[in-house]
């Protein structure tokens, strides 16, 4: 019964082209995720050891989760995801049972990707005053046991995402665990332009709209914030003239930008 509340197998296909910029990260993910799952026999022939775990870290809203979904789509693997918060909302002992059951399911449905969002809240370091240290320690130790057990099983890749890599227990990045660690930065100017193009794909734009200028003026905006800007620009057009607005103009984007400010500080870059 706890399975129903916990891990979800979902498949919402995402293409690499739905994510702007981040060429370097995408390339490394293809090698670490797509190749071992798609070319398992070649890896075996060449005695190449595929990675056991891939950890993505970086500020919120910069597409860590979306990258994992794109990697799952491209590799054709079963996608199973579990968030740290889900495990802790359970009674003592239930969280570990769910964790074991989720790993078991990943082995049964391999090739599979087992994704842990908010990994820090699942297996964070013990923080004074937060949670009961005991359940944190027990969940971390079950997690490590399960991950080490995977070495024998083929075709299960564990992926994790976190905004707070320093909050993770050091045991997680030992060899055989999260052996590929990738930083997902906020988008640069070219990445922002691509993100704006992606999020205006289905919005009718007036010919004067200059996405390149908007990309140049949105330093420190995350992909999620740029998506919000595009939505807000269209809403502004609608508010202005709900009866007949048929396109979104540059002025609507400017109004949206005035209302949506980047949450990242210069020091976060
Ligand atoms: P969090 O840490 O808050 O979970 P995250 O890094 O996992 O954030 P996502 O949830 O993948 O970020 O991204 C949020 C939304 O922002 C996505 O649904 C997507 O629409 C948009 N987005 C983020 N980065 C980009 C990008 N580079 N190109 C296009 N869209 C992006």
From TrEMBL:
GO function terms (MF aspect): ATP binding; ATP hydrolysis activity
Keyword presence, Nucleotide-binding: yes
Coiled-coil residues: none
Entry keyword set: ATP-binding, Nucleotide-binding
Domain AAA+ ATPase, first and last residues per copy: 50-188
Keyword ATP-binding assigned: yes
GO biological process: cell division
Top-level lineage group: Eukaryota
Family, as annotated: Belongs to the AAA ATPase family.
Name recorded for this polypeptide: Cell division control 48-like protein B
Native source species: Micractinium conductrix
